[in-house]
Amino acid sequence: MQKGNSYIICCIILCLGFLAISSCSTTRTVPEGDHLYTGSTVAWKGKQPKDYSSLSDGLKKRIRPNTNRKFLGMPIKLWLYNMGHEPKGKGLNYLFRKKWGEPPVLLSQAKPDYTGKVLEGYLVDNGYFQAEVSSAVKKSGSKKASIRYEAVPNHRYTIKSVTFLTDSSAIGRTVTKTYHKSSLVVGKPYSLDSIKAERERIHASLKEQGYYYFTPDYLLVQADTTNNGTVDLFLKIKDNTPLVALRPYRMHDISLFPDYSLDNEAQSTQGTPVYYRGMYIIDSSKRFKPIVFERSVFLRPDSLYRLSSHNITLQRLINLGVFKFVKGTFRPVRDTSRHNITGGSPNAPAPVRDTATPRFVQRNTVADSTYRRDTSLAGTYRAMVNNKVSLDSGWLDAKFYLTPYKRRSLQTELRGTSKSNGFIGSEARITAKNRNWLHSATALEIGLHGGIEWQTGNNSAGGGNSYSLGAEVAVTFPRFLTPFRLNIRTPYVPRTRMSASYELYSRASLYDLNAYTLQLQYLWQKTAYLNHAFAPIAVTYVLPTRTTAAYDSILKNDPSQRASIEKQFILGGNYTVTFNNQTANRVHSFYISGNLDVSGNIAGLIVPKGDSTKNILKNPFAQYERLSLEARHYWNIGRGKQWVNRLFLGYGLPYGNSQTLPFVKQFFTGGSSSIRAFRARTLGPGSYYNKAQDTAALLANEAGDIKLELNTEVRIHIASVFNFAAFIDAGNIWLQKQVPDKPGSQFKIDSFYRQIAVGGGIGLRIDASIVVVRFDLATPFRIPYLPPKERWVFDKINFGDPDWRKKNLILNIAIGYPF
């Protein structure tokens, strides 16, 4: 049987080898007289400018065609193509040629002369008006060829002056006022991109002043290049710009259709309008209360149209979370005595405007500030200037068509967990949500969850099996609930969240722990990157209801475990601010989050002291201040390559009733998203080490009041959904005060750096977009609880020793990236 299997394996290897040999020639399918195109290079002749890197990338991006794709330097798709023949059906040849393979890219497909002109055009757009690009084909053997382009940039033109050719009309004055914000800077190199940016800038500025129909195409920038290597730029409004783009507009009627449906368009846009604070609401089904839109619509009747108010309104309506589609339409109003607030379709074409026949009078006079109000003399910008015509404001009707989500939803979620301390488990969650509770866009959520966890392998973490049950009720209002009116002008909806929750955590052979929580939060997003969360009220009551003799024996070995189930109140508040500007195309991006958590301050001033502590309902309450800061830097160092660095600082100061931070507020380290070379909650504090941690006599719950952690990780895309990582982690936790049972655990400014743990390793990540499955294999480099001169353990690494591997190779399996 074994011989038969060996024979089959040998045959498979021989077949694969034959296929590989027969296809290793990448030029097998190249037609006679042609060549396999292997790529192009660009040589720069002359002094390289400061922005040479971006110019070089721009040149390379414009070269066509692209070569055959490669994986790890090998053109595998081309090899697969060469394995097959022209298919006659749906067999193996069809898969090789049509599905898996890629035909050779040929030299005949490249057009060096045309590409050279494209590259010259790119250099001209960046100020090299006398640039020249030549090309030469370089053959390699009889079947391969590449192309070498040589760029001779010559002199680069810089901006000598920028002049706005405007007049004293309203739009001319508006454009002139923006001059000091110009993106065209004297002394900088000429750039077509900067000219486009300037047109967009002026366009945005005009949109803020009511010029709804103005577009960047109505602006012209002319360049005079006859000044010895410099450029004079002249910006003007095009003479043929139509009258409609030259007039500022004011808002007339603002109408909202909050029950719009494309399937039932006629009915959803008809009904009795309700006028509420400057807007008309047509909601025949009474789905929403008018107050819902008060803080979301920033356009007001009789006010000047502003693009920012338009955009904020659209984003606010979407961010309410009750509408899946939002579309706004604007139509000019001819008769302001009439109201057109019902019916209509967001997809209907705009009405044809009945404009007067323009009268052109060619004059070279400069218009003064006194303009006549006679629009019959003007149809274009030049006619308006020559005839000294002043334009009255036009009027716009705005209609917003809002398609709501279903009011109620039910979500179920099943999770699987695997922890580095040997526990595996599962958890089920079910959440019922009402997106429009009380018809006020208020979200009501009722959630239930339960999970079980059991231990595999050795029982080093102790505690056996466990389960948890919990419930939460949360109400989120789309505004700030405060004694005074507060509406921040941002595109993001401020929210107030009130929640009440209960959780039971039971370790069957140890204890039962109950936690009751009440919280009031204010949530708001100031910009696209900056978030705030302020909880002035956060109350937690921890109540143990059962302990076992087995747990009492654990307390004898580790008395600090008693704090993990201590009965107490946590009365306080917290504030979190987060900055996150991560985007796919950004080279450098940052994530910064800070949290301040305080407890017992006010209660400590009010409640009198008992025998030894201050109590509420005969239970002590925690008193502490806790500050944490996390900063990450993401650096895209190349295509498919990223270098990530992370710093975490945590500091807790217990006082009054508390000798240490409450267990749920303490810092932990180790595990799959921390220092991965050490198992979760087994490292520290400081240089302390409990020898019982490898037995069931100790729970892995080492915690501290102070934490320092640094991580660096390089991530490389390998192929498809597979990514490779190499990482180094360092850090530790410490206690604020010395604990006699834990020598070496106190933080000391002159010695803490000697207690830093260091570990590193490699990882494989399967990134399927929806979920990321991560495998990180790590080993310690520096162990802080060893004698001072023996803490670096590079010389003790021995992959061949099974005992060393069992103790020092830590496999972390997790969902998602560590940071």
From TrEMBL:
Residue stretches making up the Bacterial surface antigen (D15) domain: 459-783
Localization per Swiss-Prot or TrEMBL: Membrane
Signal peptide boundaries: 1-20
Descriptive protein name: BamA/TamA family outer membrane protein
Record PANTHER family: SORTING AND ASSEMBLY MACHINERY SAMM50 PROTEIN FAMILY MEMBER (PTHR12815), TRANSLOCATION AND ASSEMBLY MODULE SUBUNIT TAMA (PTHR12815:SF47)
Sorted UniProt keywords: Cell outer membrane, Membrane, Signal, Transmembrane
Pfam families with a match to the protein in the record: Omp85 (PF01103)
One cellular-component annotation, GO: outer membrane
